[in-house]
Write a structure and sequence with these properties.
It is a single chain. The chain is an alpha/beta fold. The chain folds into two domains: about 140 residues, Rossmann fold (3-Layer(aba) Sandwich); about 280 residues, Dihydrodipicolinate Reductase, domain 2 (2-Layer Sandwich). The strands form two sheets. The chain has a nine-stranded mixed sheet with strand order 14-13-12-11-7-10-9-8-15, sandwiched between helices. Helix 8 crosses helix 9 and helix 8 packs across helix 13. The longest helix is centred in the middle third of the chain and has 26 residues. The radius of gyration is 24 Å and the shape is globular. The two termini are about 35 Å apart. The mean pLDDT is about 95. It binds 6-O-phosphono-beta-D-glucopyranose. The site of 6-O-phosphono-beta-D-glucopyranose has 2 residues, from loops. 6-O-phosphono-beta-D-glucopyranose (BG6) binds next to loops. It comes from Roseovarius gahaiensis. Catalyzes the oxidation of glucose 6-phosphate to 6-phosphogluconolactone. It catalyses: D-glucose 6-phosphate + NADP(+) = 6-phospho-D-glucono-1,5-lactone + NADPH + H(+).
Length: about 475
């Protein structure tokens, strides 16, 4: 369904995020017919460039980051016809009159703050001063939304001076992933799971977001953040919320976000001995973490695993084990809901102990797998065997099934449609920092160094111990 005509201003329009994600996503939606021919994209940044120069920048970005660029090439010129550029000083007045004259009144204006949080206040204020903010305006901000609770509160305050909460779209791109949204469809669209979705039947839940890549060229940012701030406080927290929340009455922004917020607020503080941090070691030619971030004594973690408890009626007694890290064995993100064993085995001790595990595979090979127990075929006794009921979405939907759009495609269109369901509300982000801050504070005050782990492994052994000591084990990263 095409969205209404809009103007999207990308502040930081020549930056890495714009190049890799925002511009290719817009182009793909244009090709899909969702972004009408009259929608306009206006890049704004400090770099001295004219419209033609920016169009060639956009065209290069598309060639590099739209996997279907070749198939889409006939659409490129008409897309670029609506792309323009303004040289702008976020902290001064240069360029703002021109931008104000470019943005059309009477249509949706989305302002994408693809810049460091230090500029949010300047941009928000100037949008007002130059008459570009009205009821049709929306602003989009990226993570990291703050560095801790205090800075997140400051950012919320700065934005609130100029925009209402319903105009602020805080992106967590995990919420734009098809499979993450599918979590809600699986939970609330099926009768099968929900009655068992509680501590009476669920032994524990594991959430893994493993990456095989290192920090790459982002060492400067990453070393100030670490896995806890970069991934745990936001992406894994969002996954935890969607898996653990109560059914919202409606699939609407506040109904969903109210339920997520309740989960975060019900989280117990994490005890220091329930957290493990790691830092990756060198691997052949690939440098170790410290070399990569050019900080020989860095104490920043590239891996974190922890055990969380949600103190409410549904989940008291069911631990949630979360882990994420870089340079791990593989790129694999999944959520595993591990059910309890049957209370009594009618087949006797030799049949072994069996558990159902529902695995939601987020990426790659998106799908759902349900481990069920069956009889081992053969004439022998009643021996039991666990087999997967496996559904890979790509197979289930067939070759002609719909594509999985990139998270940014979905999220940017939601901004234009004015739908905040998949964006974080200010209070939600603050609550997540409130939970993460004390964990980080202990590390910062203790001055301990993260445990080294081999690149290509599953992280430090201590992370395995986190589960072993509870008589459980992590699923293999594969
Ligand atoms: C980003 C983090 O938010 O998410 C990166 O800053 C991380 O460090 C990335 O690599 C992972 O996203 P995805 O979509 O590749 O799982």
């Amino acid at each position: 369904i095409p969205v209404d005509p809009f103007d999207l201003v990308v502040f930081g329009g020549t930056g890495d995020l714009a190049r890799r994600k925002i511009l290719p996503a817009l182009f793909r939606r244009f090709c899909a017919g969702q972004m009408g021919a009259n929608a306009r994209v206006i890049g704004a940044a400090r770099a001295d460039m004219d419209d033609a120069g920016y169009r060639s920048f956009v065209s290069d970005a598309i060639a590099e980051f739209d996997p279907d660029a070749a198939r889409h090439k006939d659409h490129l010129d008409s897309f670029l016809a609506n792309v323009s550029y303004v040289v702008l000083d976020a902290k001064g007045d240069a360029g703002w009159d021109k931008l104000a004259a470019t943005v059309q009144k009477g249509r949706v204006h989305a302002y994408y703050f693809s810049v460091g949080p230090g500029l949010f206040g300047d941009l928000a204020q100037r949008l007002h001063t130059y008459g570009m903010a009205d009821a049709n305006s929306r602003i989009v901000v990226e993570k990291p939304f703050g560095h801790d609770l205090a800075s997140a509160r400051d950012l919320n305050r700065v934005l609130a001076q100029h925009f209402d909460e319903h105009q602020v779209y805080r992106i967590d791109h995990y919420l734009g992933k098809e499979t993450v949204q599918n979590l809600m469809a699986v939970r609330f669209g099926n009768m099968l799971f929900e009655p068992l979705w509680n501590s009476q039947y669920v032994d524990h839940i594991q959430i893994t977001v493993a990456e095989s890549v290192g920090v790459g060229g982002r060492g400067d940012y990453y070393d100030r953040a670490g896995a806890m701030r970069d991934m745990m406080q936001n992406h894994l927290m969002q996954l935890l919320c969607l898996i653990a929340m109560e059914p919202p009455a409606k699939f609407d922004p506040d109904a969903v976000r109210d339920e997520k917020l309740k989960v975060i607020r019900a989280l117990d503080p994490v005890a220091p001995d329930n957290v493990v941090r790691g830092q990756y070691e060198a691997d052949g030619d690939a440098p170790d973490y410290r070399t990569q971030v050019e900080t020989p004594d860095s104490r920043t973690e590239s891996f974190v695993a922890l055990k969380a408890h949600i103190s409410n009626w549904r989940w008291a007694g069911t631990p949630f084990y979360l882990r994420t890290g870089k340079r791990l064995k593989d790129r694999a993100s999944e959520i595993a809901v591990v059910f309890k064993e049957a209370p009594h085995s009618i087949f006797g001790a030799e049949a072994g102990r069996h558990r159902n595990i529902l695995t939601i595979k987020l990426q790659p090979n998106e799908g759902i797998e349900l481990g069920v127990t069956i009889k081992e075929p053969g004439p022998g006794g009643m021996r039991l065997l666990d087999v997967p009921l496996d559904m890979t979405f790509a197979e289930a939907l067939g070759e002609d099934g719909p594509d999985f759009p990139d998270a940014y495609e979905r999220l940017i269109m939601d901004v234009i449609r004015g739908n905040q369901t998949l964006f974080m509300r200010g209070d939600e982000v603050e609550a997540a920092w409130q939970w993460a801050d004390p964990v980080i504070q202990v590390w910062e005050e203790g001055g301990e160094t993260p445990i080294p782990y081999a690149s290509g492994s599953a992280g430090p052994d201590d992370a395995l111990m986190l589960m072993h000591r509870d008589g459980r084990r992590w699923r293999e990263i594969k």
